[in-house]
Amino acid sequence: MREYESIQGDNLEESDQAQLLSISLSEDAVARIRSKIPKGPGLLECAECGEEIPEARRLAIPGVTMCIFCKTLHERR
Predict the structure, then answer these.
(1) Residues in CB range of 22: below 8 A, 6 or more apart
(2) Mapping DSSP to helix (H, G, I), strand (E, B) and coil, where does residue 69 land?
């Protein structure tokens, strides 16, 4: 349980309650986004074009499957 969830709402002012709700919603949004980030080993070669994915990209983005060029094209579609 989050530390602030144990605080009784009756003891807080409305602005404090709104701030706690905002924090809770933000944490939930971050958790959803993190769950969508690929994990584990990525590919050595791009799944789209077959070009080698640079080591720096593979280290920076765990689970990467596309080179920068193909990923950019994919996101624009």
Answers:
(1) none
(2) helix
For 17-53, the pLDDT digits (tens) are 888 888 888 888 888 888 877 778 889 999 999 999 9
Distance, in Å, from the CA atom of 22 to the CA atom of 20, rounded to the nearest integer, reads 5
Cα Rg for the chain, rounded, in angstroms? 20
Do residues 43 and 22 both lie within one domain?
A: no
Q: Give the type of residue at 39.
A: K
Residue that is written with structure tokens 């002012």 in the block: 13
The pair of three-digit structure tokens given for residue 5, joined into one six-digit string: 């969830």
Whole domain around residue 24: which residue ranges?
A: 1-36
Q: Do both 53 and 72 map to the same domain? A: yes
- The pLDDT score that the predictor gives to residue 1 is 45
Domains identified in the chain, total number: 2
Give dist(CA 33, CA 1) in Å, integer.
20
